[in-house]
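Raw record, unedited: Eukaryotic translation initiation factor 5B
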Amino acid sequence: MNRSTDNLRSPVICVMGHVDTGKTKILDKIRHSHVQDGEAGGITQQIGATNIPVTAIQEQTKMVDDFKKILIPGLLVIDTPGHESFSNLRSRGSSNCDMAILVVDIMHGLEPQTVESINMLRKRKTPFIVALNKIDRLYEWKASPDRDVVATIKQQKKFTKDEFQEKVNHVIVQFAEQGLNAKLHYENDDLDTWISMVPTSAHSGDGMGNLIALVVQSCQTRLAKRLSYSENLQCTVLEVKAIQGLGTTVDVILTNGRLKYGNTIVLAGVEGPIVTHVKGLLMPQPLKELRVKNPYDKFNEIKAAQGVKILAKDLDKALAGTSLLVAKRDDEIEILKDDVQAEVAQALKSIKLQERGVYVQASTLGSLEALLEFLKQSKIPYSGISIGPVHKRDVMKASVMLEHDDQWAVILAFDVKVEREAQEIAENLGVRIFTADIIYHLFDAFMQHREDLKK
Ligand code: GDP
Ligand code: MG
């Protein structure tokens, strides 16, 4: 291929799959970091973006046989929270993710969230590659991360190979049950028809190079058109974060176009659209993640695709999971404000509420959706939702349930603050507010509360 690489942007890759399959660990392995160890409860609660530059790709794919030239400027990899399944980016900016890595634990096969992820990817028509992870757990597996995984599999003892094949066959049958044709990557010569499965171990490092190489190769051959850089801005807010010394910042995924110092930006906020000016554009050192505290480099202009931290005034109430727009002229601002707010209204409107149930509050659209999904599975109804800190008006809304059934006069507040006034009113009225930054903890607290009420 003679195609110039100047005009290709980095593909945005999301890592999906069931909880505990090793999504975060795979990313850790790629960037040699230890995010997984430091996470609350080991579960990724927020989304992070990691930029993997060409040099790192080269380094990590050295052992892969037949790996051709790298034409893309790098990979932008997004880890998704365990419970969230990337749903905050599904409807809004869903076009954001160019390719996915679907992680399957080879010992467990397809699990509920794997199927959920598959359905989501299909709906969005996002191509994906399967990482058949934890191969080091096969009986007497001999690791050899500096070799191509195909050679490593060949050198295993017969019973290890047999166990491997048996597990692989099982997963293939499970994929077939989902209507998908899957093959081991080294047996797949038709990527348009078959989904490739790369055997990996995020633990020993086996197959990690193969995984990266296949992602790069598939992006280059199958997505070249989609990856040609466009000046039309495509930018999604991933996280809103207060940082000491910097104030409240937003972390965004800039998929296309560029951001410049001084740009007038318009984004959705908890209390209406926010219009502000870019006072700083930061990027972490390559291979570090936006979530991890580390020194940032400052830029005057950043071209897609990148994960960027934006400094600006008035970001306190910004809402993650929505588009960030740039106003080129002042008379555009009002239109853009309507656009971002319509996006939020659309997202909240699509959530079905029950007549009776708990009141749910979260810091982002994504975590709200994750929490609701969890409650749905746990058969706990919800009658009200809100994003941002718990205000007096939230308590008032939740208190309506006191007339019906006091077990629902509860606010489940995920990763948000409770205003003092709201707390006082809640205590007076008899509304219970539970706060936590781990979904399970909120759930446990609520279940305990229900038990206590019964007594
Ligand atoms: P996530 O929920 O999908 O992000 O999963 P994590 O990355 O947090 O991993 C879940 C658990 O599986 C952790 O204890 C990891 O150390 C472990 N793990 C992840 N990948 C591997 C692997 O390849 N081999 C083994 N043996 N353990 C793994
Ligand atoms: Mg994780």
